Amino acid sequence: MKIAIADDTLEILQEMLKEQNTEAIRIAKAGPGCGGITVKIIADKITDNDEIVEDKGIKIVADKSISFFFTDATISHTRGLYGPILKLK
Questions:
Q1: Which InterPro entries match (predicted)?
Q2: Are 29 and 39 in contact (CB under 8 A)?
Q3: Is-above-0.85 flag for pTM?
């Protein structure tokens, strides 16, 4: 698994971890999609079945059953009506 954090997204993720008092950012399966799985990005704890990478001091985890999908991804954001929307490219 290879996932990086966009420079302009680092502060958003740090704040997310602080607000939720947790240790990692999780790339979680949200359901099937037309082009493969759909994912969501959440603050979460690390489990025994996770693959873990670290970028810019933040641990990024994904369950081993889906982690092989992420060979060269970046967590970034866009500004939505209610604030930043995290996305995986």
A1: HesB-like_dom_sf
A2: yes
A3: yes
